[in-house]
Design a protein that fits this description.
The chain has 177 residues and is mainly beta. 0% of the residues lie in helices and 43% in strands. It folds into three domains: 49 residues, no CATH class; 49 residues, no CATH class; 50 residues, no CATH class. The chain has a four-stranded antiparallel beta sheet with strand order 6-7-8-11, with no helix packed on it. The structure holds zinc ion (ZN) (3 copies).
């Protein structure tokens, strides 16, 4: 639940509504500040509070112990699947429970666009560092032969070319706690 009694530590104004970035992170701006998409600058107070991201339960089982997996996003926007039985013991400063973790390298979204080479659908791939590319949905990676499989069509977007951007990359960085 948002704590509406909270005030901005910079200027003392109340904080605004909770907003969500395209990558699923949540933030609250100072109510006197706002993002101007035309100038790509924050107007008014620049205070942004990043909210902790709730882990998302997945319909997948841990390969180690069979418990459900959860999807967790780190404060740097990296995604991982981990076992729901794992937790962090703050007193002993060590992990407890099952230690299964699987890092997810970027995200894939389906696009309504056909591959110029084979006519299959394209997918949009976003790397962990936020780079975007279009590639053919038939492409894959054979771990055993260490070779690319399927169609080889790839198109990297130049910075700023992909218009779905809302300026998230221009927000102040999350504090490294
Ligand atoms: Zn403020
Ligand atoms: Zn497990
Ligand atoms: Zn293709």
């Amino acid at each position: 639940m948002p704590d509406t009694s909270e005030v901005c530590p910079k200027c003392g104004s109340p904080l605004g509504d909770i907003q969500q970035t395209p990558s699923g992170r949540k933030l609250q701006r100072c109510s006197t500040g706002s993002w101007n998409p035309e100038t790509k600058k924050t107007e008014g107070c620049s205070f942004v509070k990043w909210l902790p991201i709730e882990p998302l339960p997945l319909d997948e089982k841990c390969p180690k112990c069979g418990s459900p997996l959860i999807l967790q996003v780190t404060r740097f926007g990296k995604k991982m699947k981990k076992c729901s039985t794992s937790s962090w013991d703050r007193e002993k400063r060590q992990a407890t429970g099952c230690v299964y973790i699987e890092w997810i390298n970027g995200t894939t979204e389906s696009l309504d666009e056909d591959c110029p080479e084979c006519g299959s659908k394209l997918v949009l791939f976003t790397t962990n560092s936020g780079k975007k590319m279009k590639k053919c949905s038939t492409s894959g990676w054979d771990r055993e032969t260490r070779q690319a499989t399927g169609c080889k069509y790839v198109y990297w977007f130049k910075p700023g070319e992909f218009m779905a951007s809302t300026g998230e990359e221009n927000l102040p960085p999350e504090p490294a706690i």
